[in-house]
Amino acid sequence: MKNQLKTILLLGVLSALLVAGGAAFGEGAAYAMLGLAVLMNVGAFFFSDRLVLAMSRAQLLSEAEHPRLHHLVAELAARAGIPKPKIYLIQEAQPNAFATGRSPERGAVAFTQGILQMLNERELSGVVAHELAHIKNRDILVASVAATLAAAISSLGHLGFFFGGNRDDEDGHPAAGLLMMIVAPLAATLVQLGISRSREYLADETAAALTGDPEGLARALEKLELGTQAMPSDVASATASLYIANPFGGLGGMARWLSTHPPMGERIARLRQRPNAQSSVDRWVRVG
User: Fold this and answer.
1) What's residue 167's pLDDT?
2) Euclidean distance between CA atoms 70 and 112, whole angstroms
3) Which residues contact 134 (CB under 8 A, 6 or more apart)?
4) φ and ψ of 114, to 5 deg
5) Is the whole model's pTM more than 0.85, yes or no?
6) Residues 6 or more apart from 86 whose CB is under 8 A from it?
């Protein structure tokens, strides 16, 4: 609930920045930016999933090719109360995975060859649950809205840079326009990244509740952190935010605020602080 409220708040900040930016350049600019944001959202809503899968060179994976993975996804999808998503394979050595789709009915999950080879059944269950959580929570739609709002704000800032604001419009405010031109695009980007990090935490929480085994996901994240740092990736930067682990490695210090992913250490610590974390360890030890 905390991360859901944070997302709503941050989306509200983005919307306010867009409206304020439009007002800074006059009423006409405000309406223009609102129309642009709506148009961009509609495009992202209908076409982003196919575009992301194509950019990642993901190929549809049949049940005959990987029955174990299909069974695992089907079982956890049923537990989550969503349709079984399509499963894709990316011929990539780096261990990683992502989910896409504008709704649970259009969901898809893509796994790299590396992650299927690196993780055991327990750890892979945690990753699958994390990706299904993104679909269940409609995170792809949330991310698309945030990205398009941020893009509209940045476009407005660039407009101010080239045209210096609408000084002929009595409703325009040159000083506010200058502030919008410099500050708003940066602020919009930081808010967008904050939304992305918040949804990752939420997906971890949902996955832990879904499997009842937060330790399984924690161990998977430990392996993925090492794997993404050790193995290079040619992932397009535009799709990096979708992956469960940052394909370009983690960032420390102030640079973490410019990352689409929370620090792995914090994600793992939060999972291991959950009330049922230790009992899940004991259960798997007894089964093993």
Assistant:
1) 47
2) 15
3) 99, 140, 199, 203
4) -65, -40
5) no
6) 60, 107, 108, 109
Q: What is the DSSP string of 97-127?
A: EEEE-SSGGG-EEEEEHHHHHH--HHHHHHH
User: What three-state secondary structure class fits 282?
Assistant: helix
Q: Tokens standing for 2?
A: 């905390």
Task: Give 26-42 pLDDT, tens digit per residue.
Answer: 556 556 666 666 676 66
Q: Which domain holds residue 134?
A: 2-287
Among all residues, which ones are annotated catalytic? Answer: 131
For residue 259, give both structure tokens.
Answer: 């990352």
CA distance 126 to 132: 10
Are β-strands 86-90 and 108-112 bridged in parallel, bridged antiparallel, or unpaired?
Answer: parallel
Given the DSSP bridges, would you call strands 97-100 and 86-90 parallel, antiparallel or unpaired?
unpaired
Other C-beta atoms within 10 Å of 186: how many? 12
Q: Which of 156, 138, 154, 187 is nearest to 7 (CA)?
A: 138
d(CA 96, CA 58): 13
Alpha-carbon distances of 193 from 14, 170, 232, rounded to whole Å:
11, 35, 23
Q: Find, among 89, 74, 199, 187, the residue nearest to 141 by Cα.
A: 199
Length of the chain: 288
Q: Which residues contact 73 (CB under 8 A, 6 or more apart)?
A: 84, 85, 87, 109, 128, 132
CA 238 to the chain's CA centroid: 11
pLDDT for 71: 97
Number of structural domains found in the chain:
1
Neighbours of 106 (CB within 10 A): 16
Q: Which residues contact 131 (CB under 8 A, 6 or more apart)?
A: 97, 98, 99, 109, 203, 244
